[in-house]
Amino acid sequence: MSVQTVNFIVTESAAKEIKRIADENQIENPILRVRVVPGGCSGFQYAMGFDDEIAENDRVVEAENGVKIAIDEFSAPYINGAVLDYVMDFMGGGFTIKNPNAVSSCGCGSSFSCG
After folding, report:
1. CB 69, CB 32: distance < 8 Å
2. Among 32, 44, 92, 97, which residue has the least CB neighbours within 10 Å?
3. pLDDT of 46-69, one tens digit each?
4. What is the second-level CATH architecture of the domain 9-98?
5. Could you tell me if 46 and 33 are in contact, meaning their C-beta atoms sit under 8 angstroms apart?
């Protein structure tokens, strides 16, 4: 499973929330690292957090507001074509990833499997 580039979409609401969190934490040039890691009840789960640098083999997506998304070489094929969104509902707000590569997910929605 090799991907030279990655098609990863960051919605306007997700970019705004990432920037808001970065500003709140005084992070001047935010790089959000999005990863796929083994675990969860379906095999894989997503991990996100701010990073200080972009690695040589990272795929980089530039979102609005100067936000950069770094995706490592392992994760890229698993989330190619996915959409990162930030949604508000009656339970509050949170990030979601709509992933066309996920063939199933767990009931809690925090892990997935690929076919």
Report:
1. yes
2. 92
3. 899 999 999 999 999 998 878 899
4. Sandwich (2.60)
5. no
